[in-house]
Design brief:
3-stranded antiparallel sheet, about 100 residues, mainly beta
Length: about 100
């Protein structure tokens, strides 16, 4: 049976396969749904950065028009921004689990 760390998209296609290396979780950041932010960790220099957003509001209205954060890992930092709202959009708060593999 295969083992390791794998991230799948909504169609169950592999987005990330880290089965050849052991990942380390370095922390969790909170994105509040409004403000941009970033995280720097000294261990980011020891491997390839990964991140995985997790919804902070598990039971929110699924019909609502939501803005999800745009997350990137440029310059050895994990950063996020929210797109400009349009109409009745609102930002979705998320926890961002980050680490290296």
């Amino acid at each position: 049976m295969p083992s390791g760390f794998r991230i799948l998209d909504e169609q169950q296609r592999t987005v990330f396969d880290g089965s050849a290396r052991v990942p380390r979780v370095l922390g969790i950041a909170y994105a509040d749904g409004v403000n941009p932010g970033s995280v720097w960790h000294p261990a980011f220099a020891t491997g390839d950065i990964y991140f995985a957003p997790q919804l902070a509001l598990l039971f929110s209205d699924v019909r609502a028009y939501k803005r999800h954060p745009v997350i990137s890992d440029a310059n050895r930092m994990v950063s996020w921004t929210y797109p400009t709202p349009q109409g009745t959009q609102y930002g979705v708060p998320v926890y961002i689990v980050y680490g290296v593999y």
